[in-house]
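#lab-general

N.A. 3:47 PM
ok so I finally got the sequence cleaned up, no stray characters, all 314 residues accounted for. can someone with queue access submit it? mine expired

B.Y. 3:52 PM
send it over

N.A. 3:53 PM
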Amino acid sequence: MSTIAFIGLGRMGAPMAAHLVSAGHTVRGVEINPVTATAAEARGIHVVGTVAEALKGADACVTSLPKPEHVRAAYGGADGILAHAEVTTLLMDTSTVDVDTSRWCHTQADERGLTFVDAPISGGTAGAEAGTLTFMLGGREDDIERARAFVAPMARNVIACGDAGAGIAAKLVNNMMLFIGVMAMSEGSQLAEQLGLDAKTFWEVARVSSGDSWPVRTWYPVPGVLESAAANDNFDATFSVDLARKDCGLAVQAGDTTGVHLPAARLALSQLDDLVAEGLGGKDCTLVAKLASPDGTLRGYDPSLDRTFEGTRS
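B.Y. 4:20 PM
back already:
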C-alpha cells in the first residue's frame, strides 16, 4: 500500500483520510487545530508537525483546505508542499478554490517537475463520512488515471473532467447550481408551511415530482422531515453559510470573467451575504429559509441556542 500526506484534517479531511487508512494506506496528516488533530489521530491518522515530515517518502499528497489563500499558502513558500514534494509524489487538491488558484498550482508544480491534479469533491460531510464523495479531476490523462486509484476509497464517483483546472471549474458550476437549488427549496418549504401543508407530506410530493433536487432529498429545511437535515439541530452547520458564500462568490466571479449572466446565482449570493451580515456565517447554509419566512422566524431555529461558530472546511 501507499504512504499519503494529508494536509487539512477538518470536517471533510479527517473522514476522507480515515477511509484511506481503512483501505490500508499509511496516512501522515498536518492540522493546525490541536483539537481537530487529536480527533484525527483517533481515526488512525498519524499527525505530524510539518508539511516536510508528512511528505517524506509520500506517494501522494492530498490537501483539504477552506479557502484559496490557504491552498496557496500550503503549496507555496519555503515550508510548503512544492518545496518538499518528491518528483514521484502525486499532488491533489480537493479544496474549492477559484480557477486561477487551481491553475497556479498546476503551473507551479510543472515548473518544478512535479505532478498536480485538481480534485475537488461534492457530497458534503455526510459523503465524506460515508466514503461516497464525487471527485472531479482535472489534469493530464495519465495523471488523472493515477489519481483515480488514490481517491477511490473516498469516492462513489470519480469523473475525469478535462485538462488543468477542469475539475475545479466543474465544481464551481455544480455548487452554484446547488445554492440556487437551496434557495428554491427554501422558498418552497416556507410557502408550503404558510399554505398549511404538512411538511413531511409536501416533501414526499416534491421528492417524486418536478420540484425534486439534491437539496430537497438531503437538506430539507424543516425539522422532522429528513434525519440528515441541519433543521433538526438548530441549523448547526453541515455546510456553513461562510463556505457557501465563498463558493457562490467564486462562481459569480467566474461569471464576471467569462461574461456569463448569472442573476439567480447573484440572488443566492446576496441572501448568503444577508446571513453573514446578521452574524450567522457559521450556521448551515439552509438557514436561508429564514429569509423566506413572513416574519423572519423559522421552525427549527432558536437563536438563543446559538454557540460561537467556526466555519467548516470544504
